[in-house]
Design brief:
It is a single chain. By secondary structure, this protein is an alpha+beta fold. 35% of the residues lie in helices and 18% in strands. The protein has one domain. The protein is built from six helices and four strands, in the order H-H-E-E-E-H-E-H-H-H. It has a four-stranded antiparallel β-sheet with strand order 1-2-3-4.
């Protein structure tokens, strides 16, 4: 068989697999055609391993009220780093409740949230971007064992720079003015 035809066929099969995995992911989560609660799909890139290097769901603090501890988190989905879609916002009683909402697929405390996208819209958006880019899909070898979700997602707050005597920022820590 011609190599070009073989590669096109392989690519088409990969895209169909990813589309079916996305549909299965949303069905397993119990998300139908209603608008999506953003923290519920935080684990999407980890549950569909072919998209691990292509899709990111990034929360950011939109509003933090220090008197009541109420935090409003905005959510973006990035495909291949630059293609962004806003998923909406979620409001949490405090940061610990926000962390709990990430680890469970529940709706949290029932505080107001804005939802902007349905599962169908997200699947179409992801597949449009992935379909236009040749190296967007991660090709997993047969029988590859993916690490568990908890091993791949860093704990919240672990992104802080490491400063100590042996770390890269150690010079500044040792020689800081007193």
């Amino acid at each position: 068989m011609n190599t070009k035809v073989k590669n096109k066929l392989k690519r088409a099969l990969q895209e169909e697999l990813v589309k079916r995995l996305l549909v299965k992911y949303f069905q397993d989560k119990g998300i139908s055609e209603s608008l999506i609660y953003p923290p519920a799909i935080y684990d999407l890139p980890y549950r569909v391993p072919e998209l691990l290097n292509s899709v990111e769901i990034v929360p950011f603090v939109e509003n933090l009220d220090p008197t009541t501890n109420v935090v409003t988190i905005g959510w973006n989905l990035f495909v291949l780093g630059t293609n962004r879609v806003s998923l909406g916002t979620s409001t949490h009683a405090n940061l610990m409740e926000f962390k709990r909402s990430l680890m469970s697929s529940g709706e949290g405390t029932g505080m107001p949230s804005s939802r902007k996208k349905t599962s169908r819209q997200l699947i179409e958006f992801i597949m449009n971007i992935v379909g236009r880019n040749k190296n967007a899909l991660l090709e997993l070898p047969p029988g590859a064992n993916m690490p568990a979700f908890s091993q791949m997602v860093p704990p919240l707050g672990s992104q802080a720079p490491k400063i100590g005597a042996t770390m890269s920022g150690g010079f500044y820590e040792k020689n800081r003015p007193v």
